Amino acid sequence: MSYIKKTGWLVLGLIGYFTAFSQTKPIYQDATKPVEERIGDALSRMTLEEKVRLLHANGGYRSWGVPRLGIPENNPTDGPTGMRPEFRWESWSDAKANNDYCTAFPSLISLAATWNPDMGILYGKSYSEEALYRNKNIILGPGVNICRTPLNGRSFEYMGEDPYLASQIAVSYIQGVQSNHVAACVKHFATNNQETGRMYINSLVDERTLHEIYFPAFKAAVQQGHVWTVMGAYNQLNGQHCCHNDYLLNDILKKEWGFDGVLLSDFGGTHNTQEAIDNGLDLEYGTALGSEEAFENYYLGNAYLQLLKSGKADEKVLDEKVRRVLRMMYRTNMSADRPWGVMNTREHTDAARRIAEEGIVLLKNEASILPLSLSGLKKIVVVGENAIRTVANGGGSSEVKALYEVTPLEGIKNMVGDKIEVVYQPGYSSGLKGTSAADSLKREALKAVVGADVVVYVGGLNKEPNQDSEGSDRLSYNLPYGQDELIAELSKANPHLVAVMISGNAYAMPWLKQVPGILQAWYGGTESGNAIASVLFGKANPSGKLPVTFPVRLDDVAAHALGAYPGDGKTVEYKEGIFVGYRWVEKEKIKPNYAFGHGLSYTTFKYGNVTVDRKVVDATGRLTVTVPVTNTGSREGSEVVQLYVSDLKSSLPRPVKELKGFRKVKLAPGETANVSFTIDKEALSFYDPAQHGWVVEPGKFQVLVGSASDDVRAKAMFELQ
Ligand code: BGC
Prior knowledge:
- By secondary structure, the chain is α/β, with parallel strands linked by helices.
- It is 29% helix and 19% strand.
- Helix 5 packs antiparallel against helix 14 (346-359) and helix 14 packs across helix 18.
- Bound molecules: beta-D-glucopyranose.
């Protein structure tokens, strides 16, 4: 190219460059400007009406943008485990769309049972890619309400009974979701621990219990996960509705924890304009549907506008709410870095399957009945309605319109092909279409199992009301539909019995001694049946651990033993205080069927001695604990090494021990890993209500390392000065 030509191109290029930059964008649209400046600029251009509109819904699952300024609408999607079907804008009826079939991920209790934050990240990333594809900028999950009673209908949507485990898994999920510029929404803040009376019940909970048990997962979501939205709970806490609770939202969430995102209401959880204005609600959903007018009549709609116009409400407070909504939008649907989405990819279904497999807990394996051998068996009889039932599509707001869901029976058939004869018998009936009377089902099943090489029972709960379902609690700790009798009789007819239990929570197991093999499979999503089959047949080595205690009876649960559930219809007093789950059974020396943290493997692990890097710890509480763990069996497997801390003497009663660390390590046969944990004073402290803060008292502590809360393998002492 000649010199003249080159110079010509250069001049043209420079002109183009300067033209592009001389057409300056308004600051709020300019991605090169700091976000807070952009928010300020957007605010300065908005009318009072436009600001108020940003704070409430204009459809079931959407809320206003500012059309005049090109600011888009917000589009949340339920729920924690995959996308809910599209709804009509003005009602809660299914829009009957044909483009919203998606991947169903395992329930969150199943994710928690993996005890693996890498699975949380994978989960959040995969799900948010689907949300992006459907143009959703908020995922209404994760749910982190602590399991206070196994009867809670929504425990399957939450992460178990321990605040530390729930915190770690929630943070990983949030990080995964938000890495794709989709906001996670940690819910339901706070103490929504039962469905009975959930819209109005007043939870009476003391300050220490809130900080030690019911707050930590929310706090971690805010401070470690940097979550962009939080959902208030339906119920009241200590006399005020949670969606506009001064203490919860102003004092704790926003002031103490420094939350800078959006507090949105649970759908229909707002009850009062003045409280909503004053007490920290930023975005109101679900108050009413039906017409355009209905949306204007939201508590943060016209009523708020009138107060502002008449000078009875402060515009600064309004601006603060709008700022939060815009900040969340600059992080999500107004972010220049927002990636493209994809849905129903092979990667997503693989992720769903891996998480489901890792969450399955091998509760019992007498005489190594599991894994089943593909070559040694001729005939398997599968019994139980859950073997043929899809469940992702139920349970309330967490329902997912799965593109497909592999049932356990299909999974088993996929696994065995034509190598083994598989016979199916329902055995019991929930009233599912096409099933017949219970007695004849039982009789046929009992006949069919005689002589089979192995019987695989697939039962448990389902997503019907009063089972694992939103809006109502379970009515009984026992399994429904006569399953207890059925399992007991099956075991007599054929003792080679393996039970695969589908449920979001614990249940009574009066048949426990008669069943040699038990897998707790939760709700596994799209690939559920394949995940179950791969664990049953040993393609995957189980590595899940229980995120909840499986007590023998309800009276072994603190809330029930103390008559503190479900309350008197108006209030429910958390009389047990901090002694929830294993904290209670250990204090009361109760032996559960299966303890928190329990879960077996097809291999075995040996723990060596625990070492601590110092015997005397300074005020930072910093200490490194190391333990060698060896795979002593003949196949590769993963172990969740659990670290508990015990304060040997304290001025206030403390649990026998508390989980303060865990690591999942994968080991080849014969391999040893030195597993290390570094803890600090946070792991040693308790909340002292007299001081309204966390305190750590000098004295002797013990670290306990093990394979379950009731299976401590090694201990070490140290002293805090
Ligand atoms: C549930 C929330 C859900 C919301 C929207 C409420 O009934 O409690 O968890 O996100 O509905 O469907």
